[in-house]
Amino acid sequence: MAQVMNIEITKKEIIKPSSPTPHYLKRFKLSLLDQLAPVAYGPLVLFYPNNVNGVATEERSQQLKKSLSETLTRFYPLAGRIKDNIFIDCNDEGAIYVEAQVNSLLSTFLHQPDFDFLKLFLPIEVGSSEAATGPLLLVKASFFECGGLAIGVCFSHKLADASTLGLFVKAWAATSLGIGDTVVPDFSSAAIRFPPRDFSVQRPAVEMKIGKCVTRRFVIDGPKMRDLKAKVTSGSVEKPTRVEAVNSLIWSCAMNASKLSSGASKVSMVSQSVNIRKRIVPPLLQTSVGNLVGYYAVRTDESGIELKELVSQMRKAMIEFNENHPKRLKGENMFEVICEYFKEIGSIMRRDDINFFICTSVCNFGIYEIDFGWGKPIWATIPGGTLKNVATLMDTIERDGVDAWISLSEEDMAIFERDPELLAFASVNPSVFEPVTSSSSL
Asked: N or C: which terminal CB in the chain sees fewer CB atoms within 10 Å?
């Protein structure tokens, strides 16, 4: 009988900054975009093989905690707590560090990653309301029997988008390597550019419908990606990106699944998140901390539309976003424009006659370069699964493919995961590495 994989929490600590936050930095203003961000945690899990035979678990854990404490000194708002959705009290209350033991080999899990078990590598549930007033940063270090390590990070979405999460983890790893001063966060720009407002009376909210959903992992490797790009190339888009190509495939197959499961066609929209740091005028530093993200949406009234046409529509929407969104974020009516923008998205999401899909990409974020001193990760992933009609895209370790988690309703997923067009390019939850050997150090 196969052993049931189990994670046992062995330690839970509060990690405070290595140096107290100066008095003049005690009150950190959220930006308007932070205020409007959903109450949730942004997750990331990094898996490291055992490249450090002879280095005890306790030694690695101490290094993680020491470097985390030092990193919090530079990322001081993360050790504080949000007050009234307006500012962070930088009181050095600390981040949460959880340590756990896994009664299994890392290779056993990576052979076919189980989504429900994957969530156990996170220190808190992604949808926890603690993201509004509780710890802004939580970390979980899970050590496998073989010496492999999973580092799960949850970062309050009220302060950070995916770029900020990546910036922090890179800075933490650099600190662990003794070169932490190479990553310098910018904490001032977001609130200056997008000043916070008093929403004590009413706040425009994007209330996403939380329905029962199924989450599956699909991987398009390098060779299949080249085939997919060739398929979606057209006169209007001669060089499609990986994200455009994969989004068109996911969207097309999801539309088809929805039509077959419901027996009727619906208007369908897909929304893609966009980093606006370099797009607004004047641009912000790439190291600016906050929810500096915009969205463009594409709509179609039909299923069965060719993939290259979907890519063409997405490219057109992206160009329009780049040309017009920065203009909307300037001038005296910026506040009204942003609030109206969020109200419009929220209204669309609540409509039952529209299938609304959300895509988030963290491709090209350099996640596979994150080294705490024991080598680079063998796999990195962002577990989602709390909302349906959501796709999260990441690089494969070779950086030429896409590793995606996709959440749909049970009825739609049953059709989606068997779609011949999808399976012509994507593998369903393949092994992270091949081959798996019993003597592996994983």
From this structure: N
pLDDT of residue 438: 35
Tokens 């490797």 found at: 221
Whether domain 7-191 has CATH 3.30.1490.480: the reply is no
User: How far is 78 from 28, CA to CA, in rounded Å?
Assistant: 10
pLDDT of residue 206: 54
What does the alpha-carbon distance between residue 354 and residue 297 come to, in Å, rounded to a whole number? 13
Q: Are domains 7-191 and 214-428 of this chain identical in fold?
A: yes
In the DSSP assignment, the letter for residue 369 is G
- Topology of domain 214-428, CATH: Chloramphenicol Acetyltransferase (3.30.559)
Distance (Å) of CA 159 to CA 342, 347, 412, 416: 17, 24, 33, 34
Report domain extents, the chain.
7-191, 214-428
CA-based nearest residue to 30, from 167, 187, 141: 187
Query: What's the pLDDT tens digit per position in 133-144?
Result: 999 999 999 999
Asked if residue 1 has pLDDT above 50, the reply is no
Q: How far apart are CA 218 and CA 230, in angstroms?
A: 20
Which one of 92, 186, 221, 371 is the catalytic residue? 371
Separation CA 342–CA 299 (nearest Å): 17
Given this model, what pLDDT does residue 439 score? 37
Cα(200)–Cα(36) distance, integer angstroms:
13
Contact 86, 29 (CB under 8 A): yes
Element (H or E) spanning 259, and its range? helix 242-262
Instruction: Specify whether the CB–CB gap between 57 and 102 falls below 8 A.
Output: no
Which candidate in 34, 157, 325, 403 is catalytic?
A: 157
In the predicted model, what is the mean pLDDT of the chain? Answer: 91
Whether residue 217 contacts residue 119, with contact meaning beta carbons closer than 8 Å, is answered with no
371 is catalytic: yes
